[in-house]
Amino acid sequence: MLKPLLLTLLLLVLPALASAQVDLNRADAKMLAEAMSGVGLVKAEAIVAYRNAHGPFRRIEDLAKVKGIGAKTIAANRDTVVVIDPDDDLPAGAPGTRPAASP
User: Fold this and answer.
1) What do you get for the CA distance between the two ends of the chain, in Å?
2) Mean pLDDT over residues 25-39, rounded?
3) Are 86 and 56 a contacting pair, CB within 8 Å?
4) More confident: 1 or 33
5) CA distance 63 to 70
6) DSSP single-letter state for residue 74
7) Which residue, 27, 29, 46, 95, has most beta carbons within 10 Å?
8) What distances in angstroms separate CA 56 from CA 22, 47, 68, 102, 103, one per listed residue?
């Protein structure tokens, strides 16, 4: 009885978690590593270090300026990452994230 209920809850929660986007200009390395495909903690730390040294990202393609990040990684994460102007108000939710846009 409990297993079907847990399975149903899991199936309802997973899509919501997968639809969250992470902001390249606000997320910390741990958040980037957890959210991005093909990006572990070392690459995520390189993204944060690049952002700290060169200022905020202006577009997703700017990730290619980070050593170890190429076109394939950018393409794989195009729906996962967003670039929000750091001067904009942070949308509701966890720091560094915002809900995915509705279709």
Assistant:
1) 35
2) 96
3) yes
4) 33
5) 8
6) H
7) 27
8) 14, 10, 18, 25, 27
Q: What domains does the chain contain, in order, with CATH numbers?
A: 21-88 (1.10.150.280)
* Strand 97-98 relative to strand 21-23, pairing: antiparallel
Please give the C-alpha separations between residue 3 and each of 6, 9, 12, in angstroms, as whole numbers: 5, 10, 14
Residues counted in the chain: 103
Q: Which residue has the higher pLDDT, 77 or 20?
A: 77
Cβ proximity of 68 and 46 under 8 Å: yes
Q: How many CA atoms lie within 13 A of 11 on its CB side?
A: 6
The tens digit of pLDDT for each residue in 33-86 reads: 999 999 999 999 999 999 999 999 999 999 999 999 999 999 999 999 999 987
Query: DSSP H helical segments within the chain, as ranges?
Result: 2-18, 29-35, 41-54, 71-76
Residue pair 47/57 in contact by the 8 Å Cβ criterion = no
